[in-house]
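user: Please supply your own:

assistant:
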Amino acid sequence: MLELLLDNVSPEAIPKLTNNGGFMSELFQVKQVCKVVEDKHLLVRLHWLLSKYYLACATVNDNYENAVFYLKEVESDLQKYFSASDIIRTPASTDHCISLEELQKKFKFVQRMENVTRIQELYESKSYNELVEILTTCLKSQDPGTCDITNKFYLADSLFHLKKFNDCILECASILCYKGKITTPDWILVRCVSMLEEIFHVPDAGISARHIRSISSSLIALLVTCDQKQFESLPSALLTTPWCILYSILHNLEAQYPALYLEQDSTPNSILLLQLGHQFLSRDGNCCSDDGKLLNFTLKVLLPLVPSEEYLEFEALSHCIEQAFCCLYSHPSKISKVKYLTDHSCPGVPLEWGHCQQLYEYFKPAELPEFDTYDNINSETEALFQRILSVVPSEMKPVAAYEEVKAFLCGKTDDITTSSTSFPAYLIDIYYLIGDYYFKTKEWAKAVENYTWDLALTPVRFDSWATISLAKAEKINSQLSSCGSFNSIEVISGANVVLACFRKTLKLEPSNSKLRIEFGSFVYSMHSFCSRLLTSGVETQLNLESFNFVDSKKDEFLAAAAECFEPTVQISSTEKSGNDVAQQDDLWINHYMLGKVMEKLDPHAPIKFLEQYELAGKLLHEHGALYPVKINYYTPQQLAIESLEIYYRQDTLF
């Protein structure tokens, strides 16, 4: 009767059975009978019944100690009273045969169940070898549809740490495709794809083709499942990491078997796969899921190809890169101006310092623009570079060197010293490029500010000194030509700083005739300003000290002009003998300005400056100057105004 009552009892019913007074009372009576009546069959059946009872209890409390005790009692009874081939039958429908063979099965079952209770403990203690042995045995005995998915994950994770990658891949594939009664927790799926990603980044992992096919199918199935669900309800890693793994698989196959996986004159499928992944995420504006992992992975893979022939050959590669930048950092901001970029309405990610190098090196010009060229970065690139500078760690910025250069540009010091800096070498030109942009858009103050930072990093950059000199000179010329009021003494003091900048520039490149012309023209205009200031009646407003200051500066400016144009004429003569046509176009200016300076220095020696005017006129004639009776005001004939100026000066002397 008791055997039938315990037959097929469920784990949920164990507490109820234990609390059943009738069952426990009858069990006690059977024990008392066995003590009085020496019935070996009854004794074996009682011990068997008690082992079954405590095994059932162990499913609830994980305590197998009592069950093992009574199984050993059964083993002792069988060995003592029966032969090895004897079988004792009970009326129960399960475990109704008692024999040494069945007993050994029970012992193995108990051992397996005891091991199962230790799985969590073994996993936490990182006893991976023992864990693999236990879980392999345990999972083989279970129906794949009912096995504990957590145990499958423990097995996969243990195999991963033991570097048994092929076996780990199979377990991960079965987890990703698991169709059991309980839905696989998201954290297990995330961890599985993370393990797979790491495996495919291990060089010479020895992954077989069969395992590659298996995991590829599982990852595709996972992406299909994700596509059928709402993206918001899924961990972001499940939307991005599978694409990274599939790319690694396909790229490796293309490298190993190019004849099979690469088509001639077409974009590699691995690159198209990254584009497909981006499009997959873009449908709901999830391009930057998982902190932009897929797009950052795309850039990490494709940017090294930029200098190669492959980049120039496949247009899709550049489109893929720029679309990734666009979604990550909203660059460019005006997408409509770029035909192949699409607005995916994604929020983007904050620009981090670790990603600045790839961004800067992709968008910086191949060659640095010079101060006298028209090419420069556009407003979008300038804004991007400003964003990069905003995340540069403050301890890396050359603040001390910047203050030193600024003091020189303000006329507070006579020279600057070179100091070391921890500013990143790859960003060494960023301030120069921003300054060049502002210089060529005529925003002089911003240009000077950025050139000052650039000189703090590269104090011997000729173009930075040149553009600072020109920008400051242009600012003073604008003041002189404006109708507004200004302090003349302050303007002349500011011109001293410009002189220092020009001289610093020409020390770096003394033979640059263009800059000498600009320098000479500026100091000559300052000489003229001082002359007007002294002779136009304004001198009555100057005190004696100021008058003497202006008078001395007038002579200093004229001497500087002579000092500038005399070497320029010599340099120009050398250039004329060469083949530099662009330089020869400006030769006449050198002679013309030198003639004006000589006329100011010694008006009683006309032969010297008339020779210069004559040379300037001949050069204009050689360049096709026209001499019309009437010069068109809006569209003057070629070099007509220049020729008129030179011949007017010659004629007035006679």
User: Anything to note?
Assistant: The mean pLDDT is 82. The CA atoms of residues 292 and 576 lie 58 Å apart. Residues 1-117 form one domain.
